[in-house]
Amino acid sequence: MQKMYAGARLRTLREQRGLSQSGLAKALELSVSYINQLEHDQRPLTVPVLLRLNSRFDLDMGFFAADSDARLIADLQDVFAEDPEGAGITTAEMDDLVARVPAAARMLVGLHRRLRGATEQMERVSAGIDSGTTDSTAAMPYEDVRDYFYDRRNHIPELDTAAEELFRHNGFSIGGLDLQLTTLLRDKYGIVVVIRTDDPNSPGPKRVFDPKAGVLTLARRLSTGQRAFQLATQLAFLTQAAVIDDLIDQAETMPEHSRGLLRIGLANYFAGALILPYTPFWDAAESLRYDIEMLAAKFEVGFETVCHRLSTLQRPGKRGVPFFFVRTDRAGNISKRQSATAFHFSRVGGSCPLWVVHEAFSTPGSIRTQIAQMPDGRNYLWLARTTDEKAPGFLSPKRDFAIGLGCDLAYSEKLVYSHGLPIDDPRTAVPIGAGCKVCERTDCAQRAFPQLGRPIRVDDNSSQNIPYVPTTTV
């Protein structure tokens, strides 16, 4: 077994819990000198010490594994891939940086995000399409909010707990939750809910609240689950304003112009946690082996809502399978991505064409599965299915997406979707990558772009089957 040196992660854990070295030593029944040696990588972490740490602090099973840093390493790869001088920095060197100085690595990623935002702003100004903002360092608000949830592994415990408590305190039950929430809004807050019928050719907004009149209007086209979600979102603004304000205040690096969108994102998180309360949903997910369609039927919500909720189940003591959730359109644009895992797709150059999520459009409404392997050797189980949202009427517009949900292959036995798959045969894994521009695979015939920072070989006397052959390939 390879020795594990994790001094930086141990030091981070101690600081997060507000412990001194002597305090940690006392909690683990170890000597202070031994803790000091562990933190300075003079001793490896042993299995007995790992068991004590996991028992004492209820840690995620991957907290001390190298995989737990994979998302930060992937972000660094994006940073260095865009700079020609970064091509010489190896994955091993990035690994070492993340392991020894994780704060510096996160700072580099943050600086890169702000630089990318400034560059995009300059490009808009040059093209004469400036939005009017004077903050040239501002990134896109949706990216800021996406990073906020991504950096927190898509789990906001304050809102999760508050939602479950509100569900329990009001005696709510699964089934007909839209009617129960309507009654609560009327009886406790004096808000009347009305349903609006739209012109199919010009559908209106899903939810409109008039605070002066105390009227909340919902579109008739919404399903019962969608109505419950919109009602729960409005309830979040009414009952969780202080909690949401505190969370936004704690996000010190969040640009001012992105905070309004973050407020909506946090309210939506609360809504999802209210209509799918943590403990009942977690219990059902475990007992049904994460069968998404069964969960959707039980809780009267859609496929996408269930997938999104599954990616948030990281409560200590009741952790679900750590999933990566993604939504793409037919062009491969990723409009949603949330993760409780180390899985990562690059922001540079689109997603991998071999990924099963893109295949879902060829079999609408059917679940596709895939065992996929990333270039670093980690294997994942992926499932994907299309979903659509449309107004009634043959000529009415619709939005067509593919939803993907993935997890480390080590969790596959907990999922009904592993049934019949050759989990133990490594030859069946489809080799995918984070995105063509950062993918390290030099033998991929599907490559759409050369790897950033890698010169390609040009030979008049040879025509290869593989596009963009790098100079290092013979």
From TrEMBL:
Residues 10-64 form the HTH cro/C1-type domain. PROSITE patterns: HTH_CROC1 (PS50943). InterPro entries: Cro/C1-type_HTH, HTH_RamB, IrrE_HExxH, Lambda_DNA-bd_dom_sf, ScfR_C, TransReg_Diox_bact_type. Signal peptide: none annotated. Keywords: DNA-binding, Transcription, Transcription regulation. Coiled coil: none annotated. It holds the Pfam family HTH_31. Belongs to the short-chain fatty acyl-CoA assimilation regulator (ScfR) family. This is DUF2083 domain-containing protein. It comes from Nocardia acididurans.
